Amino acid sequence: MSVNHGEALEHWLERLARQHPLTIDLGLERVAGVAARLGLLEVPLAPRVITVAGTNGKGSTVAMIESCARAHGLSCVSYTSPHLLRYNERVRVDGREIGDEELITAFERIEAARRQGDEISLSYFEVGTLAAALVVKQRAPDIAVLEVGLGGRLDAVNLFDADVAVVTTIAQDHAEYLGTDLEVIGREKAGIMRAGACAVLGSRSMPVSVAARAAAVGVARLATLGETFDHARDAESGWRWRGEDASGAALSFAPLPDPGLPLDNAASAVQALVLAGVPLEHERLVAGFAEVHLPGRLQRIQRWWLDVAHNPHAARYLAERLRERDRHQPRQGRRLVLLAMLGDKDADGVIEALMPVVDGWVCAGLDGERGRSGADLVARISAQGGDVFEVAEGVVEAIEWIEADPQSAGDEVLVCGSFFTVSKALEWLQERV
Q1: What is the C-alpha separation between 408 and 349, in angstroms, rounded?
Q2: Tag placement on the chain: N or C end, fewer CB within 10 Å?
């Protein structure tokens, strides 16, 4: 009898989503107990382990580390979250999404381990993190690149010691779990650093607590954007990188192709690989940055642009990129924003950041206990003087309205506000455009 692994995986994911009372449950005691039963804590996960924490830019940093490592001939397993269309996106082996069967095997091992002796309850994210770790152990890659979830010190990914810990940015998000004090948030995210290992700070405006945590832990080498390493854009030939190796010797690479992702994150990716002991070559870096692709980050499908920006910091970066593109490629029509956001996000801050580069808004609601209605977004946009052309029940209904509206036929449309928003739009567009 044949087994439909796609269907079986969906059953597993539904089960994992139901089995723990809390969707997000920070803390390492439970997940460490199961990891120990699985033998995941006895030796390092891989010869090189890089973990990436931060508020924004984690996914792009992981993608660029992965692409550049592979361009240098290294085998690589990466772990990211959340996903857009398929859970399999979260674990990539040498650039390819993990197969259903390998994921299911990992879930089965975790289920058996957590039931040994006293049963241990695990959240959806915790099981996924352990599954990724099992894949790393099974595949034995040259390098493992792990994206931390919303936290740092108490995040399940922090079970595993990093040779290089990268902190991308620190901003307000997930306030109900992390609070609103940036110094406190920074200290928590810097909890992925280890004594005797290396750390990369990938923002020019990092809270003081992050470097203080590095000093308190006793990292062997701390590389800071704008000091130890940096980048510069070259209009004719892409961009340039300069930095230092673990001994403090100066390095530089130029020119490098624009990856279409934040150059702060690109520069951090290069510095992380250097500190991980990867002997980098210019031509291979060029190939790595030329080949990197990350769905949902200013992704274009005809007139549709998709970006998962869901907090003010990410929205400001998005607005900056749009202004830059407008200077070089003037638009013929209007720019509409299809906005749908979760109720626990700073919608006012996102709207304020995007308002100067937007001609009109189409609002949609998101379902679920964390959802936000389109009407709520309409009120917030109107309060800031924005023009709302339509409010729809959901993202698909908003897309269909835009497609049917004759006045919007020549307009550019930006879809943003949440991974859920982009996921629904991407699924619809891939089927029909």
Answers
A1: 26
A2: N
Question: Which class for 206: exposed (0-12), middle (13-18), buried (19 or more C-beta within 10 A)?
Answer: buried
Would you call 201 helix, strand, or coil by DSSP?
A: strand
The closest alpha carbon to 31, from 191, 189, 135, 156, belongs to 156
- 251, exposed or middle or buried, with CB in 10 Å at 0-12, 13-18, 19+? middle
The answer to pTM > 0.90 is yes
Distance CA 419, CA 411 (A): 23
Scan for tokens 């792009």, then name that residue: 60
| CA pair distance 318, 375, nearest whole angstrom | 24
Closest by CA to 36, choosing from 102, 124, 117, 91, is: 117
SS3 341: coil
Three-state SS at 428 = helix
Q: CA 411 to CA 332: how far, in whole Å?
A: 8
Per-residue pLDDT tens for 335-379?
A: 999 999 999 999 999 999 999 999 999 999 999 888 999 999 999
Reading phi first (left if > 0) and then psi (alpha if -120 to 50, else beta), residue 246 is in: alpha
User: Is 199 in contact with 222 (CB distance < 8 Å)?
Assistant: yes
Can you tell me the distance from the alpha carbon of 410 to that of 416, in angstroms, rounded to the nearest whole number? 19
Provide the token pair at 106. 């990992």
